[in-house]
Design a protein that fits this description.
Elements: H1 3-10, E1 17-19, E2 30-42, E3 48-60, H2 66-77, E4 81-82, E5 86-90, E6 95-104
Parallel strand pairs: 1-2
Antiparallel strand pairs: 2-3, 3-6, 4-6, 5-6
Length: 105
């Protein structure tokens, strides 16, 4: 999966998706994603596969926001491996932040 395909997949969860940093106006619920690493693997047919490590942060003002569950469903549907979210309050934004570490091929 290319990085643009990853972005497009996130856009099916919400139209408020940002790469690296959110827009200044903030808003209620949005996603910020960034690539944090990766590795190349040689496949059996001599193609090179790339495993991309991507961090997705979901910001919301809503406790138990159903968009978090929707995000995880979309990741699973696209066979993206991810760790359970690490959640906490972000004092810089005044929002709840859920961080998901993902791996996509």
């Amino acid at each position: 999966m290319s990085l643009k395909e990853f972005r497009d997949m996130l856009l099916t969860v919400t139209g408020r998706v940002y790469h690296y940093q959110a827009a200044k106006e903030g808003g209620d619920a949005y996603l910020v994603w960034q690539e944090v690493g990766g590795r190349a693997l040689a496949a059996s047919d001599r193609r090179k596969e790339v495993i991309r490590e991507v961090q997705v942060e979901f910001y919301t003002s809503v406790e138990f926001d159903p968009l978090l569950e929707r995000l995880m469903e979309v990741l699973e549907a696209h066979e993206i491996a991810f760790e359970e979210p690490v959640s906490g309050f972000d004092p810089d934004t005044g929002k709840i932040r859920h961080i998901l570490e993902c791996e996509a091929v």
